[in-house]
Write a structure and sequence with these properties.
The protein is built from eleven helices and 13 strands. It is an alpha/beta fold. It starts with 5 loop residues before the first helix and ends with a helix.
Length: about 300
């Protein structure tokens, strides 16, 4: 037996509903009245749009404030098209708007004072859904070299500046550091952009990789190389440009706070991995500036 793939079932039902002209969101929507709350939502990513739709269904007057040019957050700017078709996503945003939700783009709310102004304007509540747009990086001396990217910048470039991305990646040797879905998104995106070869460097084994089984399979099928038990320590740079990754081999020691066995560097295993581009996919975190909104 295998677990039920809820995501695929949900997508099938949504697309089938569209085919027959049925909108489950609008069908269950309550009428607006003066007693219903006026709510502001900061951020139009998955959390913000889901909250907006749920409140609008309850009859609330909802306004979403989005700092980017288009709504969607990571769905718009970071999730590759091979995982989420743009046409499908745009249709879902349109359905939220059809509920009466107003989405204001290029409208950043970035301070406690701005939040207080929203409340003074008559909003009964403010829901903060600014997402995790901070991409941690390696603390190494040569990180500023040309050719070193954090994962979110790399993926956003692929969607917003597709031609520049193609020119940057085409026929290059790309290494991605990390083992989550974001790392695999970056690797597969590089393959599709015409990279000469793409590798994922991960300091633990395949079993410890936090990425989903589906994305692991997709990445294997995309002819991406995997280098397990590999820990980058710095970058090799020539005339300001990345030429390789300095790394050591690792082995697994005792469990750490995450419950996974901690990687330990093995003495005498230093080696150089040639690369033109490196993408650091080391997790995601909330931006420091956004944390003050709820502090």
């Amino acid at each position: 037996d295998r677990p039920i793939d809820i995501a695929r079932i949900q997508r099938f039902l949504v697309e089938y509903a569209w085919d027959i002209g049925f909108s489950p969101l609008k069908t269950s929507q309550k009428a607006k009245n003066k007693e219903n709350a006026k709510v502001a939502i900061i951020g139009s990513g998955p959390s913000g749009l889901t909250c907006a739709a749920a409140l609008a269904q309850e009859g609330c007057e909802v306004t979403v404030f989005e700092r980017q040019e288009k709504p969607g957050g990571m769905l718009q700017y970071a999730i590759p098209d091979h995982r989420l078709a743009q046409e499908f996503f745009n249709r879902e945003v349109d359905e939220v708007r059809e509920l009466g939700v107003e989405i204001r783009c290029n409208a950043a709310i970035e301070s406690k004072e701005a939040v207080k102004e929203l409340l003074a304007e008559g909003y009964r509540a403010v829901y903060v859904a600014t997402g995790t747009w901070e991409s941690p990086t390696l603390d190494v001396p040569n990180r500023s070299a040309e050719g070193v990217f954090d994962a979110l910048s790399f993926l956003k470039m692929s969607k917003v500046k597709a031609a520049d991305f193609q020119n940057t990646v085409s026929d290059k040797s790309v290494a991605v550091i990390g083992g989550g879905d974001t790392a695999m998104d970056a690797a597969v995106t590089a393959v599709k952009a015409g990279a000469r070869d793409v590798s994922i460097l991960y300091r633990r084994s395949f079993n410890e990789m936090p990425g989903s089984a589906e994305e692991k399979e997709r990445t294997f099928q995309s002819a991406v190389n995997f280098a397990f038990f590999t820990q980058p320590t710095d970058y090799e740079v020539k005339e300001g440009k990345l030429t390789g990754i300095k790394a050591v081999r690792t082995r697994l020691g005792e469990e750490d706070a995450s419950g996974r066995r901690r990687p330990e560097a093995i003495d005498g295993t230093s080696h150089l991995i040639p690369a033109d581009i490196v993408v650091e996919a080391l997790g995601l975190a909330a931006e420091e500036g956004n944390k003050v909104l709820i502090g």
